[in-house]
Write a sequence for this structure.
């Protein structure tokens, strides 16, 4: 599934720099950005916050049947990373030797091309993670 | 709320129907349900339709009106319900509300998906929409990969094995082989399942439900009129539903579905029953790990014991609890919008003693569990003999 230019452009702060948010009322960090804190709702006050760029691998899989736009990368690693502040995000895991892709592995964010859309000519960039 | 019963059910065969259109499948299931209820179409007062992605898969939206039109039921009101793979379950619940509230005495609920008219890639894209478009699909996640992430963590936390997951597929194919409506009519071996090509590690081909065409329809009636039409009305003892975050990474746990646990708790409370009272369950096994998590989250087994219980045969037909006697999504097939209603059809057939070669003897109470996406929606119904 490929995304229109505005769809890609709107998410640049989050995807390039891991800008999420934090609720000043209860202290909970969120990524991606939210407009309402699910814990505090009306009493919550969300402010932008940069997420830590390192964490540990919480779960992983190797995708063999790739969706359109990712065929040339198949097979590739996909993981759920638990960042230093406890927030979990889904990301591709790249530049990592297979034996290091295990639950609990230390990982750090890298900036990469996510996909290139041949039809619309959009190249989408964002975060991926690699083992340290 | 009034008591509501199912008075008729109808299914098409599940599989690849290249010769039949979306609307033909819907009419086939609808006509069977009406005949089963021994009901004149004119008695139906409203229709609840379910389809996840007809717009992407066959280019057809406005499915509620289409069903009413093609079933010859105009001018009764119709709506389409969508909750990804739980579309059928939420439509069932909407239909239940409509009768339980007293607004209508008799309604129809129908689910349909026609998935084989487009390429496998287009199906994957359509199904991917059940997840989080901006934070899962964008990053290269597929629907199987999301369940694979759950499986890997479940293996890590509870020691669940690939053999245990494969044993879910072996059991469900064995049940499907006894179900003439199922897509797969052949048993598979553990070895076959374990040697199948990887889709998204650790999930292999036989850990994944197939692409399927099919439709399912049920007729619901207020309990006080149900006996007029039907000798064996099946009571809906509970209808419950819960939601969770769309994206898997945003959830507190990868190894349980909170929406399932909450919906189940509410359903058991409504019915005044406990997990041990359930004779058979149709659970959402879109992937084998899904069944393992479901039988834990529904309270049939302790957390972490779903895999060992399946491997030990405790969920086989006629065992402690018979899980997915129809063959489940894995063996019967998974025409997404139809699945939630097809689960109801199976429980009704079993409780009426009409399940043929896969009949569970002495079945009194059955449960259905229908999940949308990776757990963003869960719907639980409990049905019992009256
Ligand atoms: Zn808060």
């Amino acid at each position: 599934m490929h995304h229109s230019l505005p769809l890609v452009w709107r998410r640049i702060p989050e995807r390039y720099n891991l800008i999420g948010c934090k609720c000043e009322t209860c202290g909970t960090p969120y990524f991606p950005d939210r407009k309402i804190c699910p814990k505090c709702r009306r009493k919550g006050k969300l402010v932008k916050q940069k997420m830590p760029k390192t964490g540990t691998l919480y779960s992983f899989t190797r995708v063999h049947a790739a969706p359109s736009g990712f065929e040339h990368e198949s097979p590739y690693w996909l993981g759920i990373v638990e960042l230093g502040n406890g927030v979990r995000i889904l990301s591709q895991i790249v530049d990592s030797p297979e034996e290091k892709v295990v639950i609990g592995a230390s990982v750090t964010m890298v900036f990469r091309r996510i996909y290139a859309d041949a039809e619309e000519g959009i190249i989408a960039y964002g975060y991926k993670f690699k083992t340290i | 709320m009034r008591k509501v019963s199912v008075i008729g059910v109808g299914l098409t065969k599940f599989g690849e129907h290249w010769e039949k259109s979306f609307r033909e499948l819907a009419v086939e299931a609808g006509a069977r349900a009406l005949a089963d209820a021994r009901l004149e179409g004119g008695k139906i007062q409203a229709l609840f339709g379910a389809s996840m992605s007809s717009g992407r898969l066959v280019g057809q939206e406005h499915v509620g009106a289409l069903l009413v039109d093609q079933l010859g039921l105009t001018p009764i009101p119709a709506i389409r319900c969508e909750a990804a793979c739980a579309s059928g379950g939420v439509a069932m619940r909407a239909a239940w509300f409509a009768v339980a509230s007293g607004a209508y005495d008799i309604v129809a609920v129908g689910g349909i998906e026609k998935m084989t008219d487009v390429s496998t890639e287009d199906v994957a894209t359509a199904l991917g929409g059940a997840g989080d478009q901006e934070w899962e699909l964008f990053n290269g996640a597929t629907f199987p990969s999301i369940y694979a992430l759950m499986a890997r963590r479940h293996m890590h936390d509870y020691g669940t094995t690939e053999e245990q997951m494969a044993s879910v597929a072996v059991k469900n194919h064995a049940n499907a082989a006894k179900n003439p409506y199922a897509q797969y009519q052949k048993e598979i071996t553990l070895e076959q399942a374990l040697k199948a090509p990887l889709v998204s590690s650790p999930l292999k081909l036989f850990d994944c439900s197939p692409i399927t065409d099919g439709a399912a329809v049920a007729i619901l009636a207020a309990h006080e009129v149900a006996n007029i039409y039907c000798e064996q009305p099946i009571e809906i003892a509970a209808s419950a539903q819960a939601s969770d975050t769309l994206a898997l990474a945003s959830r507190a746990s990868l190894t349980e579905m909170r929406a399932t646990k909450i919906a189940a708790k509410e359903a058991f409370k409504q019915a005044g029953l406990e997990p041990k009272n359930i004779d058979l369950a149709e659970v959402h096994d879109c992937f084998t790990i899904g069944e393992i998590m479901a039988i834990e989250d529904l309270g049939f087994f302790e957390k972490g014991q779903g895999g060992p219980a399946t491997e030990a045969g405790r969920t086989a037909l006629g065992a402690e609890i018979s899980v997915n006697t129809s063959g489940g999504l894995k063996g019967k097939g998974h025409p997404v919008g139809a699945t939630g209603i097809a689960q109801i059809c199976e429980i009704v057939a079993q409780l009426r003693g009409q399940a043929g070669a896969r009949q569970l003897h002495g079945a009194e109470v059955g449960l259905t569990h229908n999940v949308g996406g990776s757990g963003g929606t869960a719907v639980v119904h409990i049905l019992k003999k009256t």
User: Anything to note?
Assistant: Helices of chain A lie at 5-10, 12-17. Chain A is about 10% helix and 40% strand. The beta strands of chain A are 19-23, 29-30, 46-50, 54-63, 76-83, 88-93, 106-116, 123-131. The pocket of zinc ion is lined by residues A 23, 25-26, 28, 37, 39-40, 44 (CB under 6 Å).
